[in-house]
Amino acid sequence: MKKSLSASLLVSATVVAWCVLFAPNASVPAAAQQRGASQVATTPAGPIPHTPWDGKPDLTGAWGPASFGPGPNHDARSASPEERRKSNVALDALFQPWAKERSQRLKYLDDPRYHCGPYGFPKYINLPDYFLLQTVQAPKEMLVFTEYIYSGFRSITTDGSPHPSKIVPSFFGDSVGHWDGDTLVVDVTGFNGKIWLPGGPGPANPQPAGGGRGTNPGAEPEGGGWITSDALHETERWRLLDADTLEYQATIEDPKVMTGPWTTPKSLLKRAPAGVIIHEALCLEPEDLGHMQNILRKP
């Protein structure tokens, strides 16, 4: 039976032992937005695991974002708020005038997540204090499952296979990877032009006071979002720094909206405790969008 975003994630928040609820006035239902991925208690990392079939680092696991500031998931190697701010400024400078103007006109509720569209990558990775992703590594491929918003998956080949001759455009695109030493390099193309990039041009249409997206310093600005086109091309790099820390970075090219490539800050993800899994989040647009509109109407 289908569950809406708010209902399904409220259940998740009550049954998962390490859930912590923050910001009751947050911009989406508190139980949905603040699942508390950054509150995972971790133990000292052991040696990097390797797969038995090819000896490559085994990226399998459930992962939540590390925080630059204090907290159980603190990691000083995480990108600082200032690094994220400078990165957003650099992205701003690369946007063509028409694309920047369009991005600035976007409203908070134009975000694809409020219209049953999933966060794409790298935006999903760059959401402080948000939800988990789960990776499952197998011979010749790695599967990536996202929890929020909304449940989705990616299949990444890892044997150097080329892209298919015909690609159906999608939110996640088509992913093919190869190993460069201990780093999985993933080439992604075939996007539908509907996802937003991390950050945004500023709070032209801010949400109500007290409703920031996440408690981690450097959380995304409110208001507009950086648009993309169907010419979007990404090169991702996934690497284990230790047994419990996954590093992610992406270089973005989109000649229809940008004048040159942009590289994200390095984002760190921490391994969730054993037994933690991602949970289902389905979209019922009238219910979920209506809920957000009601929140935004409140004084």
SSE diagram, text form:
Layout lengths: L4 H11 L14 H4 L27 E5 L15 H14 L2 H9 L27 E6 L2 E6 L5 E6 L16 E7 L2 E7 L43 E10 L2 E9 L8 E2 L3 E5 L13 H13 L2
What does this structure look like?
β7 and β8 (245-253) form a beta hairpin. With 299 residues, the chain is of the alpha+beta class. The chain has helices at residues 5-15, 30-33, 81-94, 97-105, 285-297; strands spanning 61-65, 133-138, 141-146, 152-157, 174-180, 183-189, 233-242, 245-253, 262-263, 267-271. The chain is built from five helices and ten strands, in the order ααβααβββββββββα. The two termini are 35 Å apart. A nine-stranded mixed β-barrel has the order 1-2-3-4-5-6-7-8-10.
Characteristic terms for this protein:
nine-stranded mixed barrel, alpha+beta, 10 strands, 299 residues, single chain
Strand arrangement within the widest β-sheet reads 1-2-3-4-5-6-7-8-10
Distance, first to last CA: 35 Å
Q: How many helix segments?
A: 5
User: How many structurally independent domains?
Assistant: 1
Computed CA radius of gyration, to the nearest angstrom: 18 Å
Principal-axis shape: globular
Beta percentage is 15-25%
Largest sheet descriptor = 9 strands, mixed, barrel
Compact summary:
The protein has 299 residues and is an alpha+beta fold.
